[in-house]
Amino acid sequence: MNTSYNAYPVVEVIKSDSSSSCILFWNKVISIFGIPNVIKTEYGPPFNSRAFKQETEHTGFEHRRVTLLGRLAIAKAESFNKPLTKTFKTAHVGGKSWKQELFQFIRQYGPTPHTNTGYPPFQLLLNCELATNLQTVTKGDKLVTGNFFQIQKCGLKLKNKLRTYATNTTNH
């Protein structure tokens, strides 16, 4: 799950990509974090079902399907999948449990500051710091903090820069 200004991942291992599995996952996420205004997905089979449409109407969030040309809209989720896939491959090569490595990856990803906001996704989403054994970057003796509007402005600035870059590279 990504909001428009943070990239806090919620990962669930499901055995099927049926609409019922996806609905259960979204209900779990919504029960923890609240109802979002909009959820963006691809045109995958679980999101095209009548049951998923009824669930979005019942729950009260807007479901936006992103076309193949509009994949930049879900670029955050796609860019998250790259290191996630690498985690699975590394676990397989090393003979380790992929589930254990997945959870370790999520524990390290959440408190890591992101370049577009300068803040960890966990801190932006839940407005608190995540206890971790990773080193914390500080300025002087104070932890780096900011307000929502500064973070959102910084994120939008980077998003516009990336959008301009993507437009220029696809038009050539």
TrEMBL record:
Residues of the Integrase catalytic domain: 1-129
InterPro entries: Integrase_cat-core, Retrovirus_Pol_polyprotein, RNaseH-like_sf, RNaseH_sf
GO molecular function, one term: nucleic acid binding
Annotated GO biological process: DNA integration
Name of the protein in question: Integrase catalytic domain-containing protein
